[in-house]
Amino acid sequence: MGKPTIILATSNGIGMGHLARATAIAEAMKNFATPVIVSVAGGIAEIPAATGIRCEYIPGKTRGWMPRKNWDTYFRDRLVAIAHETGASVISFDGVVPYPGFIATKLIDPKLQLVWVRRGMWQKNLLRFVLPFQSQLVDQVIEPGDFARAYDLGPTSGRTEAIVTAPVSLFHKESALSRDAARKVLGLDPTRPAVLVQLGTGESDVNEKMRAALSGLLGWKDLQVVLTKNPVDKNGSSLAPAGLDIRVVRHFPLAQVLHAFDASVCATGYNGVHELLPAQVPTVFVSNIRGTDDQEARAQWCHDMGFALRANQADLKSITATVKKLQDAQVRERLHNQCAHLPDPVGGDEIAKILYEFSLKSGNSRYGQLQRLKRVLFWGVLRRLALVYRVINPHKVDNKVQNEGPIWGSQNSAEELHPLIKGNVRFEHLITGASEDYIKRRKVIAENAYGLK
User: Fold this and answer.
1) Would 5-168+347-450 and 179-339 be classified into the same CATH topology?
2) pLDDT tens readout for residues 63-85
3) CA separation (Å) from 15 to 75, 199, 321?
4) Where along the chain do its domains lie?
5) Which CA distances in Å does 200 have to 57, 211, 279?
6) Count of CB atoms situated within 10 Å of the CB of 204
7) With 80 as the cut, is the pLDDT of residue 261 above it?
8) If one looks up domain 179-339 in CATH, what number appears?
9) What is the pLDDT of residues 306-319, one digit of tens each?
10) 57, 61, 62, 68 alpha-carbon torsion, rounded to 10°
């Protein structure tokens, strides 16, 4: 009997949190299962060449590539099609909300096992009211653990349906590059100090946080400041104060090269905390308060337990002053040593084994006639709630798409995929080695979604 195939689907999000967890789980299961990652996040472009994992990009609602009312059906049909193409019986979905299209896959194929990978540490928002219904419509809920779980007072914290694992991380002590090797990969001077800054840019307040953080690094002798994207605003104006040696690098997974850095400044997302702290990188966390993730609670825990410094995200002077503390070698040494007491984030291995066990079961375990009726009902209800929610909290459409047929391709490199994913021409990505039957099915799905003949 060959290895079972397991599909790891993710939503979009702020940063790479969903994709990083899916990649960590996929890497952990390679010896006993075949992972396939599908995602609406553009960051999926980085994964195939770096990991050898087969991937497919699915354009999300924010792309504006199709009428919004068509998207849930399109997403459902894409998931079912790739499950049939690869022979997968399990689809996991890592996202704050399990998309209605994910829930509805079981209406098309009742044998599919659906697993919701649901991060904890939620802020209290409108989405909490549908948690009980969403949890009933999947075969299992898994909650990746969080170092700061003791500070989780959000709507998921009191629920009992999830299997809670250890934290999930792409950082592994045994595979992380040494300081010298990591610096060689990144093209950094081996003798000068280096700081990694991951705060993002975009909205004016986020830009000001970046500017304040970079200002706190002024005066650090011979410093190399490393960012993963250019520190510029939407007009192309630099957010970096004069006097800093700025380097922009691209490397996936970044967890592999974290030993290159003497310190870091980062948003307090799941990803950053569970990579930087196990790597013992002295860090200042500056929370992003958008979205569902309660980054402030996570940052407070890290600060209170002595694993990192927390800057007041609402006070630019506090951000600059707190980041400046990283210039003190004794502060960095204290944070570095404290992080050695954290447990290893082995949740990726745990979740991989859980998904493997699900792949060995029959797909009808929670799918009687009553469950089907519930799913049909909630498929319709969730679609309408999602539309109403987005009227209240609208997505920004990324760009205006050209009203023409899509480009088709099975590109695997980030250099090829990024322009296609970010472009304004519809792009239908195909898994490597796609069969003719799959391509035909995908063309029908695309025609129905785009309204093309």
Assistant:
1) yes
2) 889 988 899 999 999 999 999 99
3) 21, 9, 25
4) 5-168+347-450, 179-339
5) 22, 11, 21
6) 9
7) yes
8) 3.40.50.2000
9) 999 999 999 999 99
10) 150
